[in-house]
């Protein structure tokens, strides 16, 4: 596992975006695994700028997002499909049909998860998977105690994760406690993994991820077992490291 510690969130976003840009320059038809949340927002901004400046194209790219809330329509302002369209897809030259986000309103969620796994396989697997990390060490919505070989499935969110994400919802708005998520085994199948994290509230999770034992108590710790995983973090997030 390669650890890159940079001064601040802007440097993390710039480094992360450059990784994606280089990947797309080397392989224009890359399959990307993508994340939502606050962590990748600035990275996507830089990627959009690079595409709009003609530095790189996403016309041949296929994407698979990590997760989606169960019970939210794609049009809901807090659905991850809406997030991706807003922050990236609508602003670049990607074919919307080549962007895949799990369907939060699926009538048969488990079937949708199996179909998602099959689709990733059909596309030859994920070349580069972008990840954030939860304060409790989750990746995707694989909460602590998730099987380290899990596949795409329905997952109950922990109270901590629900609380952490409450900031995105209106005070009296329905906030799902269930999500569809790629499994840890699914994530680990990616040829390369890039995790970005900033801020002191991620320091404890990163300490367990990098220096702790590999354990389902900290799902991100499995990245120690990946041959090509890079963690790009800022100084504040690196505070707990020895
Ligand atoms: C989002 C995802 C989550 C987030 C994590 C961190 O698609 O998979 O694992 O990466 O919850 O969220 P932020 O970046 O908002 O702190």
Automatic annotation (TrEMBL):
Record keyword Protein biosynthesis present: no
Annotated PROSITE patterns: GLC_GALNAC_ISOMERASE
Pathway annotation: Amino-sugar metabolism; N-acetylneuraminate degradation; D-fructose 6-phosphate from N-acetylneuraminate: step 5/5
Site (Part of the allosteric site): 146, 153, 155-156
Database matches in CDD domains: GlcN6P_deaminase
Reactions this protein catalyses: alpha-D-glucosamine 6-phosphate + H2O = beta-D-fructose 6-phosphate + NH4(+)
Record-annotated Glucosamine/galactosamine-6-phosphate isomerase domain positions: 11-229
Keyword line: Allosteric enzyme, Carbohydrate metabolism, Hydrolase
Cellular component, GO, one term: cytoplasm
Domain of life assignment: Bacteria
InterPro entries, per database record: Glc/Gal-6P_isomerase, Glucosamine6P_isomerase, Glucosamine6P_isomerase_CS, NagB/RpiA_transferase-like
UniProt-listed GO biological process terms: carbohydrate metabolic process; glucosamine catabolic process; N-acetylglucosamine catabolic process; N-acetylneuraminate catabolic process
Record carries keyword Membrane: no
Membrane-spanning residues: none
EC code: 3.5.99.6
UniProt note on regulation of activity: Allosterically activated by N-acetylglucosamine 6-phosphate (GlcNAc6P).
Pfam families: Glucosamine_iso
Active site (record annotation): 67, 136, 138, 143
One Gene Ontology molecular-function label: identical protein binding
Gene3D superfamilies, per the entry: 3.40.50.1360
Subunit annotation: Homohexamer.
Family: Belongs to the glucosamine/galactosamine-6-phosphate isomerase family. NagB subfamily.
Described purpose of this protein according to its UniProt entry: Catalyzes the reversible isomerization-deamination of glucosamine 6-phosphate (GlcN6P) to form fructose 6-phosphate (Fru6P) and ammonium ion.
PANTHER family: GLUCOSAMINE-6-PHOSPHATE ISOMERASE
Annotated protein name in UniProt: Glucosamine-6-phosphate deaminase
Species in which this protein is naturally found: Reinekea forsetii
């Amino acid at each position: 596992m390669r650890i890159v510690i940079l001064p601040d969130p802007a440097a993390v976003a710039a480094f992360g975006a450059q990784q994606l840009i280089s990947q797309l320059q080397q392989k224009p038809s890359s399959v990307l695994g993508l994340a939502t949340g606050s962590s990748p927002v600035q990275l996507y901004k830089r990627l959009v700028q690079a595409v709009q400046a003609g530095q790189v194209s996403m016309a041949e790219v296929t994407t698979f997002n990590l997760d989606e809330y169960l019970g939210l329509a794609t049009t809901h302002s807090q659905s991850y499909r809406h997030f991706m369209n807003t922050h990236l897809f609508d602003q670049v030259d990607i074919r919307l049909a080549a962007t895949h986000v799990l369907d939060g309103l699926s009538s048969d969620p488990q079937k949708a998860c199996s179909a998602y796994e099959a689709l990733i396989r059909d596309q030859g697997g994920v070349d580069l998977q972008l990840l954030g990390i939860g304060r409790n060490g989750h990746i995707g919505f694989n909460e602590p105690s998730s099987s380290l070989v899990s596949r795409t499935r329905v997952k109950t969110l922990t109270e901590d994760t629900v609380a952490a994400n409450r900031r995105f919802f209106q005070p009296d708005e329905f906030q799902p406690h269930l999500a569809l998520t790629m499994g840890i085994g699914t994530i680990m199948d990616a040829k390369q993994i890039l995790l970005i994290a900033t801020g002191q509230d991620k320091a404890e999770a990163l300490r367990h991820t990098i220096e702790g034992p590999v354990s389902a108590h900290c799902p991100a710790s499995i990245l120690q077992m990946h041959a090509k995983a890079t963690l790009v973090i800022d100084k504040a997030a690196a505070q707990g490291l020895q």
